[in-house]
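Good morning,

Both structures are done.
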Amino acid sequence: MTGKVPSFSLGYTVSSALPSYVVLCLILQVHRLVSAQFTVTGPDHPVTASLGGEAILPCHLSPRMSAENMEVRWFRSKYSEVVHLYHDGQDQYGEEMPEYRRRTALLKDDITNGRVFLRIRNVRPSDDGLYTCFFQSGVSYEEALLELQVADMGSAPVISVEGHQDGGIWVVCRSSGWYPQPKAQWRDHQGQLLPSTSEKITPEANGLFQAEIAIVLKEEFNQKVSCFVRNPRLNQERESVISIAETLRSKMESEKETLLSEREQEKGEYEAVKELGLSRARGYAVDVTLDPDTANPNLVLSADRKHVTHGNWDPPNKSEGAEHDIWVLGTEGFTGGRRYWEVEVGGKIGWYLGVCRESVSRKGKVTLTPEDGYWVVWLRGGVYQALTSPSTSLPVSIKPSRVGIFLDYEAGEVSFYNVTDRSRLFSFTGTFSGMLHPYFSPGYYVWGTNAAPLKICPVPAQDGENLGS
């Protein structure tokens, strides 16, 4: 027997005149008799339950006998840590620990044969561990120890490319919502394990665990790689795959710009690589419209909400029109998935395009950086820049008359394409949260110039025509 032993009386007084060893023998004999009336048995293996589900813990007496008039107590590590209590023929609600209130029930359909089941609803991570099933009848009592193992599968791994390191591509895999701690690893296309550059398994606020592993993939690794996250308790895993060939091709788009004048064969390879990136993005084309409720009052939207331009206004402070706080958002908001749209910029001398969080401030001047919720590329003063912190100048050999914007929410990517020559201008990478909206600004207004509108254009179903011509 384990746990706290209830007190009881032997029912008679032992004379203090008797030798002490005789008294001890009498006590041991009575204890042996009262404890030998029954035994308590639980399952010989741990009980497994999923988070948010139900756990059923069985327990029974041997030999069979009715437990209707017994005390049945379920507790954790201490006798006083009550999970559920039954005595005097009924459940004693209010005796259990606060964390188990209104979550437990004793299933008593077979209690006359000494069989009971403890049901725990809405299983939590804290429910994991050992439980004691305790029966007492008069001075007879016995108990059994059971183990509840809580387990649950987390989210599918999300793989993202997050820059360069040590001459290779820094690739990160993340997954959350696991219990208990998961195991995460990389494998090549043949299933062979690849060493992780870094690995972090950290607890979340809700008691679950998240995994993050990273790997540096070299240029010569031209194959698919998989990220596996496994629950060791369930012996089950989730997998995501990334095509290294496609990732490396995307990286080569900018690097091969300097090689265009060398050999005709290399030029052909370069054009093929650029085509692949834009063609892939165009496969996620969506219809985007302008939201008049977010438009600066000095902007004019077309009736179909596809065009935006400066209005004919004359503010007292002429410099007011030269600021980038004159903008409008897209009506459509995105909290996941992949989206692509195109904007005609024509011969405008300035414009701003990208995405921003729905929660950004819409009043006054702002800093257009990812830290403040903006992922924007601009043309200003004849210079193309990505508004990182600090800004990144973009080498542009052929000026775009149409710009494509590709959003991959889960991968944390916003890419900009020069549709005129089908090249990639720039890609932001990071982590998104909240709703994102397309961002448009026709640029600073100089009287008599830059008055042409920005136009949201339909993306053709057949991606083969030269839209920049």
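Second structure follows.
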Amino acid sequence: MAVHESDVVAVRSALQQLSKHQGLTPKRLRTTVIDAGTLFALPAVQRRHRQLGGDVPEALISVVRELAQQLPATDRIIVDAELTLRLLDSASAQELDVDQLYDNELGKRRSYLVEQWQALHAAVGAADVPPTPTERSLRTTPERHAFTELAKALTAGAVHTAAPMAFHRPRIDRHTAGPVVTVIGDAVMDLVFRTDHIPLSPTSHTSTRAKHEFRPGGKGLYRAVATARLGLDVRLIAAVGDDVEGRRIIEYLRSENVDTELVRIVPNTPTPVVCVLVTNDGVTSLVSKTDAIRLGADDLNSAAARATFAATRVVLLTFEQPGSIVELLLEIVRTLPDRPVVVLHPAPPEEAPARLHQFLSVIDYLVGSPAELQRIAQQTHQLNVDEAITQLRLLGSRSVCVIENFQATVHSDTVDVHVPRFQVELEDSPAVRAVFSAALAYRLATSNLPATEADFVWATAAMVAARSGFLLHRDNELVDEIDRIIRIAEEQHRTELLDKR
């Protein structure tokens, strides 16, 4: 698209006017006396509005934040602070005070920007840092250049957009969202049959009655939804087909406050369907699966994906995608100046992905069943569980967490603990097991690292909440529900100790 200088000047002027006071916020855009029509009319903003629904101010902020993240470091820092885009909310910038950086007064934001010039450049991994300006000199060339570059990008309109949807996305206030968690895995439709027993063989002529339901599923989707329910800012990287099922998955994710900007919609391709049998005692059997839709290197190398990785506190990863994509993701994470914590679920490959052993040092928490961990550890011969754990730790994984029968056993450099099953009858399911990783991600994203015994106890308790609180509560209410489950268990334990005396 051709960019006209007069358009750039008009967009720059509107942005600089909006930077005053509290900056570019939904409330400001809805109530300001400044004419924001120039910005609302931009083609990129209109496309984003059609894609996300909501209102135009939200679409504008979404586009501005995406394009600002693609600017050179100094320009990005300036527009971030002066427009209060909050691009650093989830960055590991421990020496910075984001309340001052995004203060309601522009003058105070400028003062803090100048004061922390070097630290801000370090936080975004800038290779070259220009000399620190004074507040007066900042308001001339640096600001003009930064806002000009952002205006050019907005006018050109090169933003990541998915196919337009016929439904609306619920409003998500990203300015108050928590730390970013990025999930990479599958999003599929599950055809679930609940039955008394699973037939002994495919050739068996016996029949059994079963109830069935058709619902969004996939290890990636389950983890994304569970983490979002805990109140974090969750981005899912996956792919779905351009069909009714794909649209249903996207609609469901958005209803659960999962960011779907990086979910690719593949034209002329059906969304994968997984057929699953679940018995009354929780035993699950995968019956069949249609051809999966695979992510490509472009999905991870796009500007939007790279910006997401740079802002991510925790990555939740499964082996549902091809080994080459998992390798690429781990290589991207490894080379980030401020790399996120990686939690990996090593399923579902039937063969041991031995070539991924070189990346185990990038994986902070390896979470799986005994069979899954044995499969990823083995090289030339079958290993028992203890041998597999030792092998994985020797190869570099910082923590290995074994999940079995709603219990957790953790082996790491700082924690060796067994968390027993809570005294409650639970029905196993892929969604329940995903909750453990989601809850661990929540603790890792909102507290000091590395994880302690209390964090693993909390994640185990979350699996109990998966059958109660996850269906009833969200955000702080759900966190309180998990805390309540732990308090009840502790009270029961104290009562048992007193009875024994």
